[in-house]
Amino acid sequence: MTPPAATRLRPLPLAAGIALLAASLLAGLLVGAAGLPASGVLKALADAVPGVHLHTGLSEVQRSVLFDLRLPRVLLAALVGGMLALAGAGYQGVFRNPLADPYLLGAAAGAGVGATLVIVSVPGDPAVAVPVAAFVGAIGGVLLAYALGSVAGRGDGAGTATLVLAGVAVSSFLAAIQTFLQQLKTDELQRVYSWILGGVGAADWRGLGLVVPYAAVSTLVLLPHGRLLDVLAVGEEEASALGVSAVRVRLTVLVAASLATASAVALSGLIGFVGVVVPHVVRRLAGSSYRVVLPLSLLGGAAFLTLVDLLARTVVAPGELPLGVVTAFVGGPFFVAVLRATRGPVRT
């Protein structure tokens, strides 16, 4: 297997990713049913910095729209998109499979089961317990899919075809469990279905505060592993010769990527295809080294889902489309294109 080019992240692609994210965040803040002036928004954001005092020109209603509605929503969309794309890139590095993502490997379905179990069984507001339950479910879903793929591959590990099929099987099984849990508590169906369809319309500062620590930990673990994933891409024997423990690296990345998935799914619900689309585009534009793919996937995923959320809340205004529906429109054809591009001999 030819290793990816061992390049460092160059300043130009990094600056382009940051600029794209900044532009998408600003668009998300400005566009909506209540129009906000760009200068007033920028001054209000600067005025929120301690020690800075500016006359923003915004009314109290406009300030409330900005800080209570749009800003937490835009930040949550960026966080969810960044975590899903980062997790997808991490899974692809671990399994050396460009089709791997949180949904195909059962992580999101497992997180959904964990979150649904808390929603239907914990009285009151279970917001604190949902991310923990989603994390446990995400880990269980990925391990089950990989174990099933390894068994189907006769103990030689999961190749592209076997891993995808195992992920589909595990996701279907977990979806059945989730449906069963919903039927046990039919009075919570509306709440569960709203969560399943995916969206960030209910974003608030409290929810952001609950998931930011999970997202921060997973990001701080995954980004430094780019070089080690590049080494693993050469092969396990070569990695061992260089003193790299393939088992340790894979386990660490697997846990961190599942934590990233859980932090995203816990508040946003099920939003598919981000983990396939964004890393693949990054590879096409910036190279295949994971020292490049991981950080640019984080930035690109954040920008992508912010723009998707902007589209979802404006295209049928005053109504709103679920984010999962919009990403499926984009990601479905894209996934087929990636699948066709990866055809060939498959290791099973």
How would you portray this structure in words?
By secondary structure, the chain is mostly helical. It contains 14 helices and no strands. Helix 3 packs across helix 12. The chain is globular and about 65 Å long. The mean pLDDT is 83. Pfam families: FecCD (PF01032). It is a multi-pass membrane protein. Its main location: membrane.
Short overview:
GO terms for molecular function: transmembrane transporter activity. With 348 residues, the protein is mainly alpha-helical.
Task: List the defining traits of the structure above.
72% helix, mainly alpha, ABC transporter involved in vitamin B12 uptake, BtuC, 348 residues
Give the SSE map:
Blueprint: H1 11-30, H2 38-47, H3 60-95, H4 107-121, H5 129-152, H6 160-184, H7 189-197, H8 205-222, H9 226-234, H10 236-241, H11 246-268, H12 274-286, H13 290-312, H14 323-341
Helix pairs in contact: 1-3, 1-13, 3-8, 3-11, 3-12, 3-13, 4-5, 4-6, 4-11, 5-6, 5-11, 8-11, 9-13, 12-13, 12-14
Transmembrane segments: 72-91, 103-122, 128-149, 161-181, 253-278, 290-311, 323-342
Keywords: Cell membrane, Membrane, Transmembrane, Transmembrane helix, Transport
Protein name: Hemin transport system permease protein HmuU
